[in-house]
Amino acid sequence: MPRTGVFICHCGTNIAGTVDIDKAVEASRNFPGVVHADEYRYLCSEMGQDIIKKAIEEQDLDRVVVGTCSPRMHEATFRKAAAEAGLNPYLLEVANIREHCSWVHKDMGEATPKAISLLRAAAAKAALNTALEAPRLDVEKRALVIGGGIAGIQAALDIAEAGYEVDIVEREPSIGGRMAQLEKTFPTLDCSACILTPKMVEAAQHPNVNLLTYSEVEEVKGFVGQFDVKIKKKARYVDSVKCTGCGICWEKCPSKAPSEFEMGLAKRKSIYVPFAQAVPNVPVIDRDSCLYFRKGRCQICEKECPPQAIDYEQQDEIIERRYGAIIMATGFDQLDPTIYGEYGYGQHPDILTGLEFERLFNASGPTGGKIVRLSDGKPPKKVVFIQCVGSRDKARGMNYCSKICCMYTAKQAVLLKEKVPDAKSYVFYIDVRTAGKGYEEFQRRAAEEYDVAYLRGQVGKIFPEEDHLVVRGVDSLSGRLIEINADMVVLAAASIARCDAPEVGRLVGINSDSYNFFNEAHPKLKPVETHTAGVFIAGACQSPKDIPDTVSQASAAAVKAIGLLSKDKLQGEACTAEVNQAECSGCLYCEAVCPYSAISPVEIEERYHGGTLKRTVAEVNPALCKGCGSCTVACRSGTINLKGFSNEQILAEVDAICLQR
Amino acid sequence: MSTAVNENAAGWEPLIVAFCCNWCSYAGGDMAGTSRMSYPANVKVIRVPCSSRMSPMFILRAFQRGADGVLVAGCHPGDCHYSTGNYHVRRRLSAFKRLVEFTGVEPDRFEVRWISSSEGDKFADEMADMTNKIKALGPNGKMRDARWQNIT
Question: Which DSSP letter does residue A500 get?
């Protein structure tokens, strides 16, 4: 039989006003296992806590029930007091007789019996409470950043500056991401490369940052503080230690393939760096187009390479490392607008997406920085920009706003006017959205000073006629049909999640929304955390974002990661699920419902008829379990229980409450 | 307190057991308290970490022991503290409600509700609605374990 002490708080008159405290104390004395009952005006005060501590010691109590305010308010306070008196804190139970009783019922006739009922339930549960220990978890003081765009670079630099090691895994041969593809940035028109390249170099040279480019995460195991990650370092066929980045190999290489960096508008060599400022400045060989790999001859790069860095025998390498925290910064893609047949994308070289048009401005881009039509090389005089291609389109595209298109379109129209002074821009829009510092002013300038015509309405058809494109649309403000003979059409295609985002999310155990953008733990209060402890998100992998928002979020994610890495030990959850493996049938229904991947199959050996029998059963990792208890109900043999909220404890509460019947 | 009441006598009051998830509905109950939103004392709350912790066993036991109504409350779908718990309970308990009906207990005696931590008013309203509904249905005669009534 337990030795339970019951302590009832008056909370001034908050409880005592509607609950007859003396009656409740008297009734408590008669509960099974109760050896001591007391009351105090403010139990949460130091004096009140001392009463509990003293009674634990003097009365040799091994269970404590407090009848007070909500456990969400002061459970921690009383558990701490119990612990100070040498009692395991999980042997204390709270009966919520304030928020759930005295404050919501009118008089003592109603509230007193209910308070007694709640106290009886708490005492019945407490009798079955067991001493619990929250696991203490080690922290590997190293972070992994997945994605080497501006979000990943910023997060990694912040973590590195705080004194922790950080690895950046980037799938492409160079870090830089989408921002490296941009010519200028809105609303200040500073050159994207000029502000990004120093950060890329800083990341490469920082002693705490380790770049793993041309690499992908293969597997993530473990949990917060101890993620065991397998990273595949794809073969570059170039020894990055020997390579000096002189560029002779790609000058001499005879075979070409469409450049991914240039959105396929230009060709690159088969041995290549994606762009001139690539970090690291080490080329890779693209096996699919390389003559040597396709036909077994050529080897010009090998012959020409001064430091003899070419290595055709290089193999993919698997790196296994442990990390304390992971930041996802995997970025975004642009929607392929071919699904919008009326815009004719892909059928005419002068119909481009926003990102393709951006490349035309770049001095090292497909046209050497000249704004010309790809069809005939002449500068365009009339350019039509179409907004919301795939964004805010419930029927065929995405419901959401891609956020950056209004601004980059205004930017491109301004840049166009500067490069081709007699060019005229037309922008078909649904709404112009320019929330952001200096954004509205910039867009107004585009419209007023750069002669950009904003037409509210949609385009119904684009078709080629002679040497131009006929754009037919409707101006929804005047209701008139509009026909523009354009030289070029730029489609603001929606920003979408990376096509493999759900798989990558599953690797680290985070989920995505209906558009495959990663879910944050709380849309307002936990914008960079995820439901998986120790995994944070930054940048456009969470939702479409401009550069300032991306950088802010990256720094926020870095701070969260630093906070985690700065701890020597992490406190786990004490109320976790527990499997009785002797009874477990190994059906693993529990594994399927666990939102934290905390349950996994394990093979055990059992003695059976003199021999040993191997069978598979479920095992709960207490470091991962958050104690929701969903598995306990999924278990067919009822053999999983939740510590702190066990079947027996909850049933005891039910019985105690129903005892009035 | 422990004497069996004559339920047919005038002044019969129903007993309703409400299982509330810690993060939304229990906190919604706290909010009802903080806002002094009164509801009948017939409702007694048992705290569970997540509505997906709700085993049908707990509900059946409440009916066996004499509860006249059982309410399970969790976070709104999509808001579960544990991501997906309330989706599981939604499926499990909608199937379970059919079983309750099959056993002869009026299905209205068992309800699942979504109450967020900010919905103190909704918490109080749901508790009052449930109480009124059960009052109209009268005492629960089915599934009662008669032996239990003699235990003091």
Answer: T
Alpha-carbon distance A227 to nearest alpha carbon in chain B (angstroms): 21
Q: Considering CB atoms only, which of B30, B54, B65 is closest to A658?
A: B65
- Considering the domain architecture, whether residues A297 and A354 belong to the same structural domain is answered as no
- The enclosing domain of A541 has a CATH number of 3.50.50.60
Q: Are residues A288 and A154 in the same domain?
A: yes
Cβ–Cβ gap B65/A661 under 8 Å: yes
pLDDT at B149: 58
pLDDT in tens, A30-60: 999 999 999 999 999 999 999 999 999 999 9
Q: Residue for token digits 């804190």?
A: A89
Residue A446 lies in a domain: yes
Handedness of CA A61, A65, A67, A70 (dihedral sign): positive
Which residue among A111, A595, A645 sits closest to B53, beta carbon to beta carbon? A645
The beta-carbon neighbor of A654 closest among B32, B34, B61 is B61
Which segments within A190-244 are labelled E, that is strand? Answer: 190-191, 209-212, 215-223, 226-233
Question: Which amino acid appears at position A536 of this protein?
Answer: F
| Residue of chain A nearest B124, judged by CA positions | A104
Chain A contacts in chain B segment 100-119 (CB below 8 A) = none
Number of independent structural domains in chain A:
4
Beta-carbon contacts of A231 under 8 Å, excluding residues fewer than 6 positions away, are: A167, A169, A212, A215, A216, A217, A218, A318, A319, A320, A321
d(C-alpha A471, C-alpha A491), whole Å: 12
- Looking at residue A25, its pLDDT comes to 97
Mark yes or no for CB contact A629/B49 under 8 Å: yes
pLDDT-derived band of residue A290, with 50, 70 and 90 as boundaries? very high
The confidence score (pLDDT) of residue B1 equals: 37
pLDDT in tens, A142-176: 999 999 999 999 999 999 999 999 999 999 999 99
A120 and A14 fall within a common domain: yes
Pick from B27, B45, B48: CB nearest A645: B48
Tell whether the model's pLDDT for residue B7 goes beyond 50: no
Thinking of the domain B13-145, which architecture would CATH place it in?
3-Layer(aba) Sandwich (3.40)
CATH of the domain at A613: 3.30.70.20
The reply to whether residue A658 touches residue B67, judged by beta carbons under 8 angstroms, is yes
Pick from A128, A42, A119, A116: nearest CA to A77: A42
pLDDT for position B150: 52
Interface check for B32 against chain A (CB to CB < 8 A): the answer is yes
Chain mean position to CA A571: 22
The single-letter DSSP state of residue A89 is G
Q: Inter-chain contact B46–A121, Cβ cutoff 8 Å?
A: yes
Say yes or no to pLDDT of B121 above 80. yes
The domain spans of chain B are 13-145
Domain range for residue A560?
Answer: 142-331+522-565
Helix, coil or strand: residue A192: helix
pTM for this one?
0.76
CA distances from A534 to A202, A376, A582 (A): 26, 53, 33
**pLDDT (tens digit per residue) in A78-107:** 999 999 999 999 999 999 999 999 999 989
